[in-house]
Amino acid sequence: xxxxxxxxxxxxxxxxxxxxxxxxxxxxxxxxxxxxxxxxxxxxxxxxxxxxxxxxxxxxxxxxxxxxxxxxxxxxxxxxxxxxxxxxxxxxxxxxxxxxxxxxxxxxxxxxxxxxxxxxxxxxxxxxxxxxxxxxxxxxx
Length: 141
Hints:
Strand content: 35-45%
Oligomer: single chain
CATH superfamily: Nucleoside Triphosphate Pyrophosphohydrolase
Radius of gyration: 14 Å
Structural class: alpha+beta
Largest sheet: 7 strands, mixed
Shape: globular
Number of helices: 3
Number of domains: 1
Helix content: 10-25%
Number of strands: 7
CATH architecture: Alpha-Beta Complex
């Protein structure tokens, strides 16, 4: 089998009760890893449609997509994989553990960056933090 595997996902974020920024990471027991909600495109689906579907399936949350983030390119199971990403603000929803994702964590950006299993995933978080979420104003960090 050859050909690039196409997937999409989101750096899902929200504001905490205190107004701080939180990033959502999901734990996949199959791989025992922490990553952003993401998954393969279905036939006829655009990358953004897939990203929003995957966020809902893996986190139980609806979201509002924002800026496109850097695309991840890497080898997975001997095949090239291309994952398109967007920043997305979580709106309503509730996480329910399932076979694909058994845990979800809302983490401050530094902790999320450290918890990501694939170091290459930090590129998307860094890009998101560099541009900042909408209405964030000066960060003061």
